[in-house]
Amino acid sequence: MGSPLKNKINAVFIPVNNIEKAKEWYSTILGVEGEIMHGHLCVLDMEGTGVILDEMPAWREKGELITPYQVPSIQFGTDDIQASYRFMKDNSVEFVTDIQFGHFFVIKDPDGNMLMVCE
User: Fold this and answer.
1) Confidence category of residue 83, pLDDT binned at 50, 70, 90
2) What is the pLDDT of residues 10-31, one digit of tens each?
């Protein structure tokens, strides 16, 4: 018998420490809107796989900061890696790498999560 799970990722969660600040940053960087729900998560208006920013109160002690992704586990696509790199620079985004092999680079969000941008 095959698995009842779909061969599809519905959404990825990104751990954040301040939902308002994270929503503003991701809205600017991705050019999307999002709605804060339940006071601790924000569902971004993405095409395809969803992105949910979450303060994750159920998974940490009160007052404890959430541990960010220490590796780029999420990749955002672009049709122009050079323009995307310049856009990130113009928006004072923290870079982990410059453009690698002519088609990707890695950045950090304000919470320290590593994210990849790839053409």
Assistant:
1) very high
2) 999 999 999 999 999 999 999 9
Classify 57 in phi/psi space as left (phi over 0), alpha (psi -120 to 50) or beta: alpha
How large is the C-alpha radius of gyration of the chain? 15
Specify the domain boundaries for CATH 3.30.720.120 within the chain: 10-57
C-alpha angle 47-16-48 in degrees, rounded to nearest 5: 10
Query: Are residues 51 and 44 in contact, defined by beta-carbon separation less than 8 angstroms?
Result: yes
Architecture of domain 10-57 in CATH?
A: 2-Layer Sandwich (3.30)
- Report whether 92 contacts 109 (CB < 8 A): no
The three-state secondary structure class of 46 is: coil
Token pair of 118 as six digits: 């790839």
Q: For 53-105, what is the HEC assignment? A: EECCHHHCCCCCCCCCCCCCCCEEECCCHHHHHHHHHHCCCEECCCCECCCEE
68-119: CATH class: alpha beta
